Amino acid sequence: MALKSLSVVLLALATVSQINAFPQYGSLGGLEARQEEEATRGSTSTSGPRSRVPPPPPAPPRFTGAKLVDDRDHPWRPLRNGDIRGPCPGLNTLASHGYLPRDGVASPSDIIKAVQEGFNMETQTARFATYSAHILEGNLVTDLLSIGGKTSRTGPNPPPPATVAGISNHGSFEGDASLTRIDAFFGNHVAFNQPLFDQFVDFSNRFGNGFYNYTVGGELRFHRIQQSIETNPQFRIRGFRHFTAYAEAAFTANLFVDGRKTGADAHQLDMDSARSFFRDMRFPRGFFRPSSPTAGEGADIIFAAHPTQPGTNVGAVNNFVVDTSMGGLTDPCTFYVQFVNTTVRALYPNPTGVLRRNLIINLGFLYDSFAPPDCPQVFPYGQN
Questions:
Q1: What is the Cα–Cα distance from 273 to 93, expressed in whole angstroms?
Q2: For 162-173, what is the mean pLDDT?
Q3: A Gene Ontology MF term for this entry (predicted)?
Q4: How far apart are CA 189 and CA 142, in angstroms?
Q5: I need a surface site. Which of 113, 204, 210, 340 has the fewest CB within 10 A?
Q6: How many Å apart are CA 132 and CA 121, to the nearest integer?
Q7: What average pLDDT does the chain have?
Q8: CA dihedral 286, 289, 291, 292 (to 10 degrees)
Q9: Mean pLDDT, to the nearest integer, of 334-351?
Q10: Residue at 10 is within a domain
Q11: What is the per-residue pLDDT for 31?
């Protein structure tokens, strides 16, 4: 039953029809999409970014085949003073190559375009991941999100309890049992961790003949969960983190493998390339993105190796209790409803004005990108 539900989720993410227009949000006097985005993007003044009407999500790219992305127009550059990076090696790499603003602060549209262009991520998957993160930890008024920690560059803070703390904020988009980052309970959960990468290499040698693939992902994902259960009294893998834990394990074998590899070599990540992404935040030299748009392929294989339900350690290590109240990978409708009515409402209990308007718009984008089967849209703040 769990695998059947998981297959439905992945199919929905990978094949849902492309939504290129959102007429319910209107237009700006008939402007073309790019002009409309520029008109609504807002400007930066001495007082910081201004409020902005969120533009419709970028359309899918016209060309979706393999192509060189480590190119002359996107050279890797080392971090400058003040540049922000976070726990996601893919976003870090895109920023270091200029597909995203190199300072690490971007709009949702910037991020969706970048992950499609740099990694050929399937459009609906790109939108779902981006709007989820933005609603949780972005500045909804200025339409800006930090790919790392909190920064004033995203604009003034909304009223608490909203945090606008960026993707690095523990317990929202980022979570426990990362493949190459330690749990927040133990310290810096954002920085690359060499001992965990050594473990990544060890599992790749033991189960993948020196390569990371879906088989390795199934073993390593389960092992990291067990490590956290045994050592982290505050370990959680509920709701959204249940999604991202399995997605990151699959994306590693999908997005970080050169798109010219086919047949038995497809989805086989070598360790030099893995080190380049995870540690150096850099495309391997001459890297080609995947040859077709990629969603969560392989997540079902990784989950099936050692199915783990959502849950949390309760007060102590080795005290893991299954908790499906927030949904998860195998229960997408419960996840969606709880995400909106519980998680988002807790952050924004009484939004007004521009904040309320932009919440409604972003929640609409989120639902249109995900739309769990037989799961009606919910409207915690109304529809307009």
A1: 12
A2: 92
A3: metal ion binding
A4: 27
A5: 210
A6: 16
A7: 89
A8: -170
A9: 96
A10: no
A11: 29
Confidence of residue 48 (pLDDT cuts 50, 70, 90): confident
The better pLDDT of the pair 5, 178 is held by 178
Categorize the per-residue pLDDT at 346 as very low, low, confident or very high, splitting at 50, 70 and 90.
very high
Confidence bin at 351 (pLDDT 50/70/90)? very high
- From CA 350, how far away is CA 203, in angstroms rounded? 47
Angle at 127 between CA 122 and CA 133, to 5 degrees: 130
Helix, strand or coil, per DSSP, at residue 218: helix
Relative to beta strand 105-106, strand 145-146 is antiparallel
* Residue in 228, 199, 231, 230 with CA at minimum distance from that of residue 216: 199
- For 184, which DSSP code? G
- Higher pLDDT among residues 139 and 329, named by residue: 139
Q: Is the peptide bond before 161 cis (omega within 30 degrees of 0)?
A: yes
β-strand pairing of 236-237 with 211-212: unpaired
- Residues 140/158, Cβ–Cβ less than 8 Å: yes
Please check whether residue 295 lies inside any domain of the structure.
Answer: yes
Domain count, the chain: 1
Residue 85 belongs to a domain: yes
Q: What is the mean pLDDT of residues 251-273?
A: 97
- Percent of the residues in the chain that have a pLDDT greater than 70, as a whole number: 88
DSSP, collapsed to helix, strand or coil, labels residue 14 as helix
Q: Does 375 fall in a domain?
A: no
Instruction: Count the neighbouring beta carbons within 10 Å of the beta carbon of residue 279.
Output: 15
CB 369 within 8 A of CB 134: no
Element (H, E) at 149: none
* The dihedral sign for the CA sequence 262, 266, 271, 273: positive
Alpha-carbon gap, residue 258 to 261, rounded angstroms:
6
Q: Which domain holds residue 282?
A: 50-370
* Bridge partners of residue 308, in order along the sequence: none
pLDDT digits (tens, 9 = 90+) for 220-242: 999 999 999 999 999 999 999 99
User: What span, in angstroms and rounded, lies between the C-alpha atoms of 349 and 341?
Assistant: 10
DSSP codes, 361-377: HHHHHHHHHH--TT---
